[in-house]
């Protein structure tokens, strides 16, 4: 690129837009450790009890749990910070409860992209049939890997109410297949 454009070589990337990048001969590790620590400090969660899991198993979330929204600006700021942190932490994309205590325990987690010679695209899918208490809609989730490196993931509420687990699985498989076709075409463009 230096032959085509006027630029300076600053060496290997170490830090960019709160993304910490550690490059080695066997792969690249991307995390947001400093950003996560700053988020915990901002919301006074540094010295609180940590959590080993994102949320209670089989916990059902509902739209209105009866609690009053005391400080909307505070919560919007927290949600915005968590959305940005989810760029390197796909494990927090769905869970809301206990999230800051979980982040405090797993502050150094990130995404490891290892060097691979076999560019095999694999995927994992799952769904939660009728998991929403409010409207009985399910949640679809998928993750795509090349080798052992996660390259694409999603956790999204389904748009329709399904009548069976099979129908919920079909919707999840369909959205996952659409993503797989797009990724295969993209990889083919990259040779």
TrEMBL record:
<feature type="domain" description="Reverse transcriptase Ty1/copia-type">
    <location>
        <begin position="1"/>
        <end position="53"/>
    </location>
</feature>
<dbReference type="InterPro" id="IPR013103">
    <property type="entry name" value="RVT_2"/>
</dbReference>
<protein>
    <recommendedName>
        <fullName>Reverse transcriptase Ty1/copia-type domain-containing protein</fullName>
    </recommendedName>
</protein>
<dbReference type="Pfam" id="PF07727">
    <property type="entry name" value="RVT_2"/>
</dbReference>
């Amino acid at each position: 690129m230096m032959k085509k454009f006027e630029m300076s070589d600053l060496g290997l990337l170490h830090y960019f837009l709160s993304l910490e990048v550690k490059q080695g001969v066997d792969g690249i590790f991307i995390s947001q450790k400093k950003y996560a620590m700053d988020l915990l400090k901002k919301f006074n969660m540094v010295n609180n009890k940590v959590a080993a899991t994102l949320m209670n198993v089989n916990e059902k979330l509902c739209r209105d749990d009866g609690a009053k929204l005391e400080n909307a600006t505070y919560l919007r700021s927290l949600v915005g910070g968590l959305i940005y942190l989810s760029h390197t932490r796909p494990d927090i994309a769905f869970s809301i409860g206990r999230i800051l205590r979980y982040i405090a325990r797993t502050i150094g987690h990130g995404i490891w992209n290892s060097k691979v010679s076999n560019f095999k695209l694999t995927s994992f899918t799952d769904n939660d049939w009728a998991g929403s208490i409010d409207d009985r809609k399910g949640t679809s989730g998928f993750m795509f890997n090349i080798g052992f490196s996660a390259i694409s993931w999603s956790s999204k509420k389904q748009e329709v109410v399904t009548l069976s687990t099979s129908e919920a699985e079909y919707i999840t498989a369909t959205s996952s297949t659409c993503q797989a076709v797009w990724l295969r075409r993209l990889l083919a463009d990259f040779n």
